[in-house]
Structures are given as structure tokens and as C-alpha cells.
Amino acid sequence: MRSILFLIAFLYTACLSAQILNPAKWRYAPSVEQAKVGDEVDLIFKATIDADWYLYSSEFPCEDGPIKTSFNLVPNSSYQLIGKIVPINPVDKYDDIFECDVKVFKKTAEFRQKIKILATPLVLTGESDYQVCTEKTGQCVPGGEDFSFDIAVSGDPAQSEGDTVPVTETIDLVVPSNTESNGPILDSSLVKEDPQGKSLLGFLLISFLAGLAALITPCVFPMIPMTVSFFTGRGTRFQALMYGFFIILIYSLIGAALAPLMGPETANHLSTEWIPNLIFFLVFIVFGLSFLGLFEITLPGTFINKVDQQAEKGGLAGVFFMAFTLVLVSFSCTGPIVGSILVSSAGGEFLKPIAGMFAFALAFAIPFTLFAIFPGWLKSLPKSGGWLNTVKVVLGFVEIALAFKFLSIADQAFHWRILDREINIAIWIVIVVLIGIYLMKGFRMPGDTGKDAEDKTVSVLRISLAMVAFVFAVYLTPGMWGAPLKALAGYLPPMYTHDFNVLSSSTEAPTAICDEPKYADFLHLPHGLNGYFDYDQAIACARQQNKPLFIDFTGHGCTNCREMEANVWSDPQVLQRLRDDYIVVALYVDDKTELPTTEWYTSTYDKKVKKTIGKQNADLQITRLNNNAQPFYVLLGKDERVLVTPYGYNLSPEKFAAFLDEGKKKFKDLYP
After folding, report:
1. Strand 34-36 to strand 152-154: parallel, antiparallel, or no bridges (unpaired)?
2. pLDDT of residue 226
3. What b/e readout covers 463-487, taking b as 16+ CB neighbours within 10 angstroms?
4. What does the CA dihedral 400, 343, 209, 439 come to, rounded to 10 degrees?
5. For residues 54 and 134, is the Cβ–Cβ distance under 8 A?
6. Does domain 535-670 bear CATH number 3.40.50.300?
7. Percent of the chain predicted with pLDDT > 70
8. Range with the lowest mean pLDDT among 39-43, 126-130, 215-219?
9. Fewer CB atoms near the end CB (10 Å): N or C, the chain?
10. Strand (E) or helix (H) holding 43
11. Which residues, in sequence order, are bridge partners of residue 492?
12. Strand pairing category for 583-588 and 549-554
């Protein structure tokens, strides 16, 4: 049937046009130009596809259908195939011609095949087979061409020939369960939406709220009536709107200028290395002390005056410099908040600092714009007074509390153990109690002057906020003795750092594993689970016990990972499945423990030498699973195939349990 359909399509194409159609142009390149005997190399097959055409992928369930793309390497003793050809992110499509679901590529296509070099000279030649179709006319064009790869290989051919092994002739090689581990193999059909997008929405909300908080600081709030006086009588509504636009533009440009520094590699470095995190810790402490009134962070007065003079010129240029003046004058109050947002945006997304600055500026600009358009609203604003300094002081305490998050990340990554869980909680309790006492006017700070400071009467609002602070302190207190404090799990050091844990204990028997886990003296699993911290050791045990492998790509500095462990893993239905149905391995991508030189290797992804536990785990996730986000949960079978769609950040225990059940069922179907 397939050959008949192919013949019909071919004849139809020939009749429609006398010219030879070539909708797919191929390029063949190895992942490295130089290698040595024993190295593993990716062969990369790329195609550029004409507009309105699509290329069929190499894998989809429709058997009696279109020609699947294949690359048939000529077998010889100079190389060995590792795994099978991997299509990179094809899309799903229903094929009307063949009446079945297929996977296709549009515009561009990429396939990868990993090989191991066994000898020199390395000979890599073969032939491709594929089919390209267009929905415009219904044409389908079969194709095929010879290809070759050139890789300069160093090594002694005489020594290498004796080490050769039989080469599998089919391109669809599945790693046998008794072979050396090569790492997880991800079926591209299992790739779904990156769950990290949801965390970006939360970050935008926090940035927006930070913009609102900045409005009620002593150096911003008084600027609102000054802004209105600038526009009253000489400004138009259009100029008022442009004023708000320029405020947003200026802050967004700050984010754009810093965005190139927030890429995945830089972000991981900033979020885990001890020097950046200590710098962030000190920056937050300095910002906090500034808000408390110890000193003031200001820009040079001459610079501000020059900008202010430009604002008097009028027109849009004057409106722009008026907005610029507002940004500069308010810097001593907005600077710490903006700095906190930019530091928090170091999460590997290029758009995150830009989006964070935009959300902050939007909240910051809206009131100025509205009051400039409707100056009569000023009468509804509360008068400036001592309450502004109260807001500033409370924000200072909050900044100091958040500073310890950065110190905690460095502490965990390097296993210093100077900021264990109960010490962090104790610091927070003291800070929160101080906020409550301050709101009750129990003591004064340097900026508290005037009648408000002398008056000992406490307003209902201050009492209410003080109650919130004291309640939070009470909530934190059981954490000193081991209470999980699930709501704060992502911001506190993990439970294994707790020195005296008298409230939480596990009565369940630990998971039976095969041998003593590597690195168990400084790495730990939550909730009394037994497992591994080394991939090769874990997959060997999974094969031995005939169980699927549960991989937890995690990090010491991963807030969402701690939330998942505290709120999802702790659920009885989830914990029971992890204990009984899986071999668990936690792969920390940010651990700084250096491995012996014999275990170092050069990554095929970025050509850098991977020397630490974290670097090697991160490289495994990127090169084998095409993902670098955490948390990232993967279920593997004995042949290291990914069983079901990997799971990301989602705080639903029911969905996580269903994910584990689906993986267990697939495992039993594949390995009865």
C-alpha cells in the first residue's frame, strides 16, 4: 500500500511540473571537527524547507503512510552507533492524504545521531531517504541523497583495531539493558510546554507589587503633587500619557541593558557560585541598612540638576527629561527595590529582567500618569508624614531577611553548614518580631521625626500590621524544632540541615536500594527516602531490581524544588509510590564538589571540561534531555528510554501521583 501511494504521488508530481522540485536542502555536520578514538560525537542532519512545504519526521505511529525520514550509515569498524536517530522537536499533524497522525517539520528540520569513535581512519558515509509534501497543491516529493561527515580523529590505528566491536547495521539501535550507561534518551514526541513560564507570571506579579510599594516611600510619594504642578496649566493629556510611557521606557531599558548578563550559563553561575551570592547577600544588607536610615544611597546632585534643567525645555523632550528626573530623584528609595528585582531575575531567561523592570515601572508610572491627567484626585491622597518613613523601615527589615536566602544558596552548594535551617528561622523570627514592635512604636529609627514620632498613639492600621508580623513569628517558631513550614519551603534551607528535628519523623521503612550511594555524606533526599546521587549507580540498581528510575534534576538554589518536596513529595500517596515503585536518584546541577581528574570530560554541548558533580549533571540534562530547568522529573526504563512526558513544577499531588502511575504502567507494558 505504501509503495502504491508513493508511486501515485511521484507520478502526480511529474505530471504537474516539468522542473525538478527540491523543497528540502540538506547540510551535514558533526558536533566537533576534531576528536580522538573513544570519543562520542553527534552527527547532525539539518534541512532548510521551502515555504508551504513540510518534511516527515523519522518517528510516528502511522505505519502504512508516508515515507519516514531515515539516514542509513554504511556499517564499518571505525565507529559504533549509540542509540537511534533523534528528531529535534517535530510538530504533530493529521495527514489528510494518508489519514493518520504524523510528525513533521516546517521551515527547518534537525536530526541527531550519536556515535562512538572506535578506530582511525574514521569513515562516515551513508544515504538518506525522506519525503516532502505541500498542502497548497497536494504535491509530495520523495528524496534521497548521499552524505558524508569529515572528522579529524587522533589515535593509533594499530591499537584501535583490536578494540573494535561489531556494528549494528540498523540506524534504530536501542541500548540493551546490559550495556554501559549512555544516559537518558528522550523521545521528542514527549516534549511539552516548559513549566517555567508559570514562574515568570509570579515574578511579574511580585515586580508589579514592588512598583506599588515604591510609591509609598519618602522620596517618591512627595513627587506626585510635584508632577501634577508641572503639568497643570501647560501640559496636555497626551503629554501626561507620554510621561508615563517614558518612565516605563527608562526602567525597561535598564532591564534590557542587563538582559545579556542573565543567560542560562551566567544565571547558573550567579545563582550558585559563592562569590556572586555573597555579593548579593551584602548588596541586600546594604540596601536594608539604607532603608533603616544608617545612610542614604544617592546619585550625584550635579548630574540630577543637569537633567532637571533639560526638563524645562518643554515639548516631548521636556516630558522625557521630567520622567528621567523622577527616576533619578527617587533612586535612593527605588534603587534597592530595583536592584532586588534584577538580582532575582538571574534565572536563565533573557526576557526576565526586561519583563521585571516593565512590570515594576508599569505600577510605578500609572499613579503619576493618572494624577497628571486628573489633578483633582490629589485631594483624596493622604498627606506626607512620618508614615512614609515607617514604610521605608519595614521594607529595610524585609530586605535584610531576604538577604539570607542568597547566603543560604552558597552555603548549601559548598556544604559550609554555617547557615543551617534553624539558624535561618531564628534570624527571621527576630526580624519579624522587631517589625511588630516597631509598628507598635516600641522604638524609633533615625528617620522618625516630627509629631508622628512623638505621638505614642498607635493607629488601627499599624496594630493590624503588627498583628500580622507577630502571627508570622508564631508560625515560624515550630520550625525551630523541625516543623516543615511548607509555605516557606522554597526560601529556607532544606530539612536535612536541621540539627534538632523533634517534630518531624518518618515511621515508614526506608526504600531498599542496592549498594551504598555515592556522595551520601553530604547530599540527601527528603522525607527519609533512600536513593542515589549518581546516575550510573542508580540505573544499575534500577535494572537489578527491575524497577523504573525516577530522576530528580534539582539544585541547592532551586526554590521550586524545595516547594515540590515539601508540598508534593510529602503527600502520602506520592511518598508511597516513590518508596515502593521507583529507584530514586537526585541529580544536583549546582553542586560544587570537584570530582577526581579521571572522571572529568569535555562536553559535546559547549566544549567545556566538566569537573564537578553539578556541571556533569547539568550537562547530562542538557545534552540528553534538551532541558536546563529545575525541578525536572524524568522516568526511565531499563534501556534508558524516557517512559512518559517529563514533569516540571506543579504543586498538585494528585497530578504528580498520576504521573508516577503512568510511568509504572508503561514500564510494566515494556518489560513484563
Report:
1. parallel
2. 61
3. eebbeebbebbeebeebbebbbbee
4. 10
5. yes
6. no
7. 71
8. 215-219
9. C
10. strand 40-49
11. none
12. parallel
**Closest CA relative to residue 426, chosen from 391, 368, 491, 473:** 473
Could you tell me which residue, 309 or 38, shows the higher pLDDT?
38
Q: Are the CB atoms for 660 and 582 separated by under 8 Å?
A: yes
Residues 233-252: what's their mean pLDDT?
Answer: 77
Does pTM surpass 0.90? no
Strands 124-134 and 100-106: unpaired
Q: Say if CB 538 and CB 549 are below 8 A apart.
A: yes
Q: What distance in Å separates the CA atoms of residue 391 and residue 448, rounded to the nearest whole number?
A: 11
Enter the DSSP assignment of 62.
-
> Which segments of the chain belong to CATH 2.60.40.1250?
2-174
Query: Does the pLDDT at position 445 exceed 60?
Result: yes
The C-alpha cell of 73 is what?
550509515
CA distance 406 to 152: 46
Q: Which of 668, 672, 610, 603 is nearest to 635 (CA)?
A: 668
Which residues, including other chains, have CB under 8 Å from residue 249's CB and lie 6 or more apart?
Answer: none
What does the alpha-carbon distance between residue 476 and residue 427 come to, in Å, rounded to a whole number? 10
> What is the pairing mode between strands 91-95 and 24-30?
unpaired
Peptide bond into 276 cis (omega under 30): no
pLDDT greater at residue 602 or residue 263: 602
Using CA atoms, how far apart are residues 476 and 200, in angstroms rounded to an integer? 27
Tell me the C-alpha distance between 630 and 589, whole Å.
9
Q: Is the pLDDT of residue 409 over 80?
A: no
More confidently predicted of 582 and 411: 582
Percent of the chain with pLDDT over 90: 21
In the numeric block, the cell 516630627 is attached to: 450
More confident residue, 193 or 221: 221
- Decide if 326 contacts 247 (C-beta within 8 A): yes
Mean pLDDT of 527-555: 92
Q: Is 603 helix (H, G, I), strand (E, B) or coil?
A: coil
Give the pLDDT confidence score for residue 379 in this predicted structure: 61
Which 3 state secondary structure label does DSSP give 204?
helix
Q: What is the pLDDT of residue 382?
A: 61
CA atoms within 13 A on the CB side of 572: 2
For the chain, where do the domains classified as CATH 3.40.30.10 start and end? 535-670
In this structure, the number of other CB atoms found within 10 A of the CB of residue 611 comes to 17
Say yes or no: domain 2-174 is CATH 2.60.40.1250: yes
By CB atoms closer than 10 A (0-12, 13-18, 19+), residue 275 is exposed
Distance CA 378, CA 226 (A): 11
Handedness of CA 545, 550, 553, 555 (dihedral sign): negative
Q: Give the span between the Cα atoms of 119 and 122, in whole angstroms.
A: 6
Let me know how long the chain is. 672
Average model confidence (pLDDT) across the chain: 77
Whether residue 356 contacts residue 254, with contact meaning beta carbons closer than 8 Å, is answered with: no
**Pick the residue with more confidence: 458 or 262?**
458
- Contact yes or no for 73/81 (Cβ under 8 A): yes
Beta strands in 107-145 (DSSP E): 108-117, 124-134, 140-143
